[in-house]
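Quick one, T. Sequence first:
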Amino acid sequence: MDSEKRLKIAIQKSGRLADMSLQLLEKCGIQLSKSRDQLLCRSQNFPLDVFLVRDDDIPAFLATDVCQLGVLGQNVLREKQAVDNGKFVGLVEELPLGYGRCRLSIAVPQGFAYDGLASLQGKTIATSYKGLLGAYLTANNISADIVTMEGAVEVAPRTHLADVICDLVSTGNTLISNGLVETDVILQSEAVLVKNQIADAEIAQLCDKLMSRIKAVQRAAQSRYIMLNSPTDSLAAIKAVLPGSQSPTVMPLQGRDDMVAVHAVCEEGVFWDTMEELKANGANSILVVPIEKMLD
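Structure tokens:
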């Protein structure tokens, strides 16, 4: 493979999404060193360059092939596609990443006489997501005026700029503190790995390799390794209790004909009630440990 060819990925330059994206790459074994201007990280042990940019700019980096991969919220990508799908139609949500969860919702002031979407007919709605909101209103046959704001959308009703708002919600505390009530969810969003139409076969191969590592990290994070001792005659019941385990390893215990050791990778939650049920079926010396890396 040509050593000069490097995969390029764009991530948000600051904030929680940036931190978690860098942590994900670190878990994939990617060692990064930042440039002096802090806008570029270059991996020393994998042919990967990481561009640190504004989240709104990531779709453009992908559409122009400056980068082949990007990590951004679905809300950002879907809004860009709603406004100008011709430019961003080739971008594909390749993999949900499980962090940065939020939702795009309509919220009304307390005391607003809200009785379904029809209550928004003829109203003025403030938002930073004109494309998504406009498409949602059109799909529901609602005619309303949209006021575009770049920030502080939640203050629009108090300042009489709008009757209601459409904004991102995570905990809902910001809405409550501004006297707003969430009504309708337009979009459930999380961070996703987005890919453009990669033409270069070698770059595509690097992309597949990185995505394989990310999937392995995700699978490991959701899995646990269980070790326990089981009476031989209880083995079938023990296997039935193990969550998400298909083929546990069963080994004889030295000097014991009536006991075996059971090792299993469980890809579902292992909770206290699971362990208690294992114990009730005769298991003992139960040990549950996290898995750092896991590759099929």
